[in-house]
Design a protein that fits this description.
- The complex is a heterodimer of chains A (about 325) and B (about 220).
- Chain A is mainly α and about 325 residues long.
- Chain A is built from 16 helices and no strands.
- In chain A, helix 6 runs antiparallel to helix 7.
- Chain B is elongated and about 90 Å long.
- In chain B, strands 1, 2, 3, 4, 5 and 6 form a 6-stranded antiparallel sheet that branches.
- In chain B, helix 4 packs across helix 5.
- Chain B contains 7 helices and 6 strands, in the order αααβββααααβββ.
- Classes of the chains: A mainly alpha (about 325), B alpha+beta (about 220).
Chain lengths: ~325, ~220
Amino acid sequence: MEGLQAQLERAKDYLSVEHHLFGCALLRIGIGSVVVYYLTGHWAERSFLWGPNGLYPYWLFARELSTTHAPSLLAVESQGLFDALYLAALIVAVLYTIGWRTRLIGIPFAIFTWSLFMRNPFLLTGGDNLVQVELPLMLFANTSAFLSLDSGWRGPFEYSADTSRPVSALVHNAALFAMMLQLAIAYGAAGLAKTAGYTWQHGTAIYYVLQTREFGMSSLTSMLFRNDIIVALLTYSVVAFELSFPFLIWHRRTRWIAAAGAVAMHTAIALVMRLVPFAVEAMVFEFILFPDESYRGLIAWGENTRLFKWIIRV
Amino acid sequence: MNRRDAIWWAGALALGLALAAHFSLIVLSILPMNPLSYRCSRAIAAYVDPVFLQRWSLFAPDPIDADNAAFARGYYHDGAREIVTPWVDFTDPVLERVRALPVTPLNLTVTALSKAMGSIYTETGIVAATPADRDAMLKRWEDPTQQPRGLVVLETAGAAALRAAYPQFKFERVQIMLSIRSVPPFTKRFDPHAMQEPQYLTMDAAPFPNVIPWFSDNAQR
């Protein structure tokens, strides 16, 4: 009985302190930056992509609403109002990225980001979908403890565990766990779905993707598809990575493997298939896998390397 | 256990149950249909759709294995005579620019046009339809309000491209043609004759939509 009591006390002590705060801050900056990129990078063609008389006109959005059940603040008939809301979305995204009143700004940021993604469903990528399902969970996490205006741009070495707000810490840790579990489900589901596909089973899926003009690079593709062993290895390694990801992220010794696999896969997707925002959206979620000590250790290690000293000197 | 501890543990229990319920519904929503998800289908749909809808497939179960392209031509009157423009390719020029410069805002346009073309094949069943059913489908789609959403998007993009390519004409109707060409099978990847000819699907002309102008170099006559 005493053993159980002691275990419960230890669990309470652990959950009464907010964990993975630096990773959550990097996630906030990553997601915010992607949304800022979407809004500023497409400023010139905003009306064409999301406007009332653009690719997905307002009347079509209104017609499809009964089946999509996905309203959007940006679905308005007036071009002037659309422009005003677009600008508001950009301001909110910038404020969220820099971490100004993050808890409060997080709510309009989530609403505007949702609205942007839902306004034209043909623009929605897998990365956007991951952001969309994670954002409601992020609202409950403390994402501004580091690298934010709220924290005075605090770095990873300038913070010690706060045990004075156990309930707030409990909510943060639950949100963190939920975000990690959602990430695990996303990769696991993608991997499982691939096992049912003929080309993934037969080790040729990568060939077909890279042979299309939309996703392939002619020089690299022709070099790759000539070697059947490389095609099969790449295809099976994608499935193996996605299926193992949900099991690797929970232990400190294996989460590096999961994160390295994700970074390798998404970097390849960004470079070869040109799906850069998608790749960035997927990669920034890897930040939350690591505790603050890992970042402190990484920075301390980096400070002792020649490259870091060279950068500082330059 | 003091009162504060009791409140904390009650909160922890409630959060744990909420997370268990949340992820049970999420997992049931992505699993293939089974007796449990069938029984709970209404609750699952009500909770998951649209906020937590999981559209993350990453080229599963099978990746795209064909090249799609879309063309538009416009109809206008010169006096009493109706004139038709040549077909304008409005997908390949954008794709070429993206292939030349990967980090470009045009990436999103490529995504939208690609998904719009794909949705016509996957959401309407037009490819598998009998000739009579296909004709009935195309007739119905002459009315834009009855069109599948992918066709609306392509007509809008095509109309924008036509306006950019022929700014001097006042178009009354727009017509879309899709082409699809399958990638050679893996086993025939070295066979120069394995590359198939594209297949074309021509829609009926529909009223010219009111669309904002597009960048003129995205259209190619």
